[in-house]
Design brief:
single chain
């Protein structure tokens, strides 16, 4: 089983004050990016106007009622410096590489973060205890770990971080913080093994449900240019979609990946699932 060392987890939760008035929000036009419009949701007084702007941008026939969005970056440590990995979906890490994750909800969210190893086994990184997920203010980043680094260790292979962001806490996912996850399997009592098995089954079903729903949602992935967004809005308008997922990879303008789910359904409880792939390879030894 691939070892993925963990040196501690913590959150940097510093509230960010968005210096923007309601008048500025109402005056926004098509030149505002999705990232900028979603950030307007941080101010309660601006949410109604932001919902109208976002609906126009995406192509919805009704105002957006709920948005869940986040930005993330993978920071690679080298020579004492941390540099964002531009395209983590194609990047190949080397054994011994050290990284940290920076995850920042664009608007207030509850976060659940799981590590999935090559064998499919999952470890809960957040929440860490008492089944209480961290409520993170929009614009306040979480850095994992905050006092160390993840390090890629043998054997190499494919693994990933699963990040779930929600507007309301989800009990099935919060149950991952059960104390049994802090014990090696050989130290679990028969009762704890049954608990762990039950929790794993419930979490698997919950993730499958979120993943399936997201896969069926009208989706755009790529750079959020004005032309691309016009084409996407036309597609949404023609289909009559009420939900949409948009993902923009890190680029020269924005050093972090942006992922967003929006819906026009007032009764919806949206959950955004972001899968961050982490592929490692062994260095080939040069023959003498």
């Amino acid at each position: 089983m691939k070892r993925f060392p963990w040196f501690g987890v913590g959150a940097v939760l510093a509230a960010v004050v968005l210096g923007m008035g309601v008048a500025n929000c109402v005056a926004a036009d098509d030149e505002d990016t999705l990232r900028e419009i979603v950030r307007m949701y941080r101010g309660p007084a601006m949410q109604e106007a932001a919902g109208k702007l976002l609906a126009k941008k995406i192509g919805f026939s009704k105002d957006v009622e709920h948005v869940v969005a986040l930005e993330y970056s993978v920071l690679l440590r080298s020579d004492g410096k941390e540099t964002p990995v531009t395209d983590v979906k194609t990047y190949e890490f080397k054994l011994g590489d050290q990284i940290r994750m920076k995850i920042e909800p664009v608007k207030d969210s509850y976060l659940y973060i799981l590590h999935e190893g090559p064998s499919g086994n999952r470890t809960c990184l957040l929440p860490t205890k008492e089944e209480k997920p961290p409520f993170v203010k929009g614009g306040s980043p979480i850095v994992l770990p905050d006092d160390g680094f993840f390090e890629f260790a043998a054997p190499p292979g494919d693994e990933q971080l699963l990040v779930v962001a929600t507007e309301k806490p989800v009990s099935d996912l919060g149950a991952l913080a059960n104390v049994v996850f802090n014990k090696p399997d050989d130290q679990l009592t028969p009762a704890e093994k049954e608990i762990k098995k039950m929790i794993n089954a419930k979490v698997q079903e919950r993730l499958k449900s979120i993943r399936q729903r997201q896969a069926e949602t009208t989706t755009y992935r790529g750079l959020l240019s004005e032309e691309a967004m016009r084409d996407f809005a036309k597609k949404v308008e023609e289909s009559g979609a009420t939900e949409a997922v948009v993902e923009e990879p890190a680029n020269k303008k924005n050093g972090s990946t942006f992922v967003m789910m929006a819906t026009t359904k007032a009764e919806a409880r949206p959950a955004l699932l972001v899968m961050i792939p982490l592929r490692s390879i062994a260095l080939k030894l040069k023959r003498p």
